[in-house]
Each structure stands twice: as C-alpha cells, then as structure tokens.
Amino acid sequence: MKRLLGYGLLVSCAYLVFLIIQFPAAQLYAWLQSRAAAPVVQLYQLDGTLWNGRAAAATVGKTHVDAPAWTFRPRALLLGRLEYGLSGRLARAPVSAVVGRGLGAPFYADDIRLALPLNEALRFVDLHDIGLTGQFRVEIGHLEISAGKIAALEATLSIADAAFAPPVNVALGGAAMRLESSGEIIKGILKDNGGPLQADGVLIYQPSGEYQLTIGLSARDPNDVQLRQALRFLGTPNAAGKVSLSRRGRIDLQAYF
Question: What is the dihedral of CA 65, 68, 70, 76, to 10 degrees?
Fold first, then answer.
C-alpha cells in the first residue's frame, strides 16, 4: 500500500508540473512583473509556454540578449532539479547554456558556449579600441552562484587567430586562460599557444566582485621587428621588449542573480 501511495504521489506531482509548464509564458511573466519591485530580467514579446518558448529580446542586468529561447529538461526532475536549456545571441554571437536549480541548492549553469569577435569581447575590459581581429571563445563546464557570488567555476577562455587589423596586418596567434575557483577566489592563468606572440598573465576575481587582470606581451622572435613595433600600440615595452597591461574593475553578480 505504501508503495502504491508513493507511486500515486509521484504521478500527481508530475501531472502538476506538466500543467504548470504548459501555462502561457507571457501571462505568467506579466503576473510576476506586476509583483516584482525591481526585476533583474526583462523579456520582450514572449511567445510559447514554460515548457518551450522564446522572446524577441531580453535584458539581464546590463546585458542585452537577442532572440532568447528556452526548453524545459524533464529528466532533471528525477534528480530533484528544475532545469532548462537556453539559447540566444549575445553581441550578435550565438550563446547556449543549461541552467537549473535543485531544492535547497544554488543556481547552476553547465555547458555554456559562446564565440564572438575578439574586439567585441575586449569591451568588457576596456580594450575594444586597440584594433584586434580574431575569435574569442568562452567554454564554461560548470558554474554555481550562491548568494550573488561564484561558489564554483570550471571554465576556459580562449583566443584564436588573433591579429592586428589593417593597416598594421600583424598575426599574433592564440592563447587560452583556464579559470578555477579556489575557495571564494577565482584565478585564471593565461598562456599562449606558441604563435608569434608570447603571452602570459593572471586574472584574480575576488568575492566582492573586484577583479585584476595583468598581461605581459612580447614577440617570441626578438628579430620580428614588425610585431615589436605593433606592440607599441598597446604600451611602452621594457628593456626586454615586453609590454605589460593591467586592468582593474568590478563585476557585481548580485545585479544578475
């Protein structure tokens, strides 16, 4: 009898979830907006249901996303989690992720994939005016947010086919930075891939939201006069021909979660 009651409760809960996620997304969103003091997420021109839907655009904090779409992932319910697959366009580049939350567990995001022009990505650290071409990729295997702070992170940021744009036309190569959480601090180590540009650097992200990025750049071949001259656009080289860049800022995650 107890097993029968358990199955009945499970079926009832599943049916209740089915009814909820079939509810029109636009109606639920309007109801939530009318009761939210300062909503973090703004959606425009919603269509579909909580199970499967889309919008013309969305703003999350200060970030604008075009054509956001969502798909409910029912298998996660077996693990006690509410999970969605998300997609959209950020800075005209496609982005996708799996996001969710369990009972009493922090918000998480897995399999985040984003690729966009390098010059667009550099705007986040105030370097968008240096005339670089190439591709910037973000691959986040796992991210947890708790109380507006990063609780866990496994990610890789990479640059491919970087070069100074015309009229300079100097190839730089690529580099990658592996990000990992150590306690409450996020640390990233930058290494080049052996191309013409020799690069190293460190990123430190504090729980307060403050970050510091330090990068050193030099020509791998000291006789590469063209690259050495191009690096002067970024800063004054030291006696060894190395240009150092340093950026400080703040990313307040509480404005997004």
Answer: -20
Structure tokens at 193: 């891939």
Residue 170 has pLDDT above 70, yes or no: yes
pLDDT for 253 equals 65
DSSP letter for each residue of 125-188: GT-TTS-EEEEEEEEEEEEEEETTEEEEEEEEEEEEEEEEPTTT-EEEEEEEEEEEEETTEEEE
| Beta-strand relationship, 149-164 and 132-146 | antiparallel
Identify which of 63, 125, 151 has the alpha carbon closest to the alpha carbon of residue 250.
125
Distance of CA 238 to the CA centre of its chain: 34
For 65-107, write each residue's pLDDT tens digit: 999 999 999 888 888 888 999 999 987 889 999 999 988 888 9
234, 128 contact by CB (below 8 A): no
Taking 70 as the threshold, does the pLDDT of residue 189 lie above it?
yes
The CB density around residue 70, as the number of other CB atoms within 10 Å, is 20
What three-state secondary structure class fits 54?
strand
pLDDT at 25: 78
How does residue 125 score in pLDDT terms, banded at 50, 70 and 90?
low
Q: If you ran DSSP here, which 8-state letter would residue 51 be given?
A: S
CB 227 within 8 A of CB 218: no
Determine which helix (DSSP H) or strand (DSSP E) holds 13, and give its type and residue range: helix 2-21
- How far is residue 9's CA from residue 59's CA, in Å, rounded to a whole number? 38
CB of 141 closer than 8 Å to CB of 111:
yes
- pTM of the full structure: 0.77
Residue 255 has pLDDT above 70, yes or no: no
- Cβ atoms of 21 and 50 within 8 Å: the answer is yes
Q: Which two tokens stand for residue 63?
A: 């970030």
